[in-house]
Specification:
By secondary structure, this protein is α/β, with parallel strands linked by helices. It is 48% helix and 12% strand. It folds into two domains: 2-121 and 199-215, Rossmann fold, CATH 3.40.50; 122-193, no CATH class. The protein has helices at 10-24, 59-73, 92-104, 122-126, 129-135, 141-146, 155-163, 167-173, 176-190, 202-215, and strands at residues 2-7, 32-37, 79-86, 112-117. Strands 2-1-3-4 form a four-stranded parallel β-sheet, with helices on both faces. The two termini are 17 Å apart.
């Protein structure tokens, strides 16, 4: 099967490059996949039409048009679209239903899997403390132990407090571009060490199992 993976930022693409190979094997071996990163999640359009400005590359803003396009281009193919977004402060059930409503408006509908990282993608990295410690041996144990898995707590800040010199407070002083670069570096360093079978993040487990079900991989 072929997977078209849509993720809201560059750090997510980096992490998924390693994660998908652990779940599905190298691209082209039994399955193929492409990962597309966007410049933020944005918001689902109220009219469910989607923006016409492709240059902005905001995932949820463009999602209606993307899914309608995939419905046509992937028709009659063994392929699926996987949309991965952060929950942030949203209500999980309402958020997923909003995305399902977009899919309901597509004719034909592409085979689509929506998955939500709770609270943020960094929760999937924190789901394997051994991987964090392998990448950052001096990571602060007190911070890692104080993190409640998949809680709404400012997840990326927790990871920054554990592994970044000066923590999230220092990182925020440099502004968002620098924080985005740090997130990419964490994904690059931690994701290769992740054990996808032992990850404690429930939202990661749901993602992993959903991918495997679509791929027909028995667990």
């Amino acid at each position: 099967m072929h997977f078209e993976i849509l993720v809201e930022d560059a750090s997510g693409k980096i992490a998924l490059t390693f994660i998908l190979e652990k779940i599905l094997g190298p691209a082209g071996q039994d399955h193929t996949y492409k990962i597309f990163s966007y410049k933020g999640a944005g918001h689902i359009p109220k009219n469910l039409r989607g923006t016409t400005d492709a240059r902005k590359r905001i995932l949820l803003d463009r999602l209606p048009r993307l899914l309608r396009g995939y419905g046509k281009s992937l028709q009659n193919l063994s392929a699926a679209v996987v949309v991965i977004v952060d929950l942030d402060k949203k209500d999980c059930l309402e958020f997923k239903q909003e995305m399902l409503n977009i899919l309901d408006g597509c004719n034909p509908q592409p085979r689509t899997l929506f998955r939500i990282a709770i609270e943020e993608g960094e929760a999937w990295l924190l789901g394997d403390r051994n991987a964090v410690k392998a990448a950052y041996p001096r990571a602060k144990e007190q911070v890692l132990n104080g993190y409640e898995q998949d809680s709404i707590c400012g997840t990326w800040e927790k990871l920054a407090d554990a592994v970044y010199p000066g923590g999230s407070k220092k990182l925020k002083q440099f502004g968002w571009p620098h924080a985005g670069q740090a997130k990419c570096k964490w994904a690059e360093n931690i994701a290769p060490h992740l054990d996808v079978e032992a990850n404690h993040s429930r939202s990661f487990q749901v993602f992993r199992d959903g991918i495997r079900k679509l791929a027909g991989i028995e667990t």
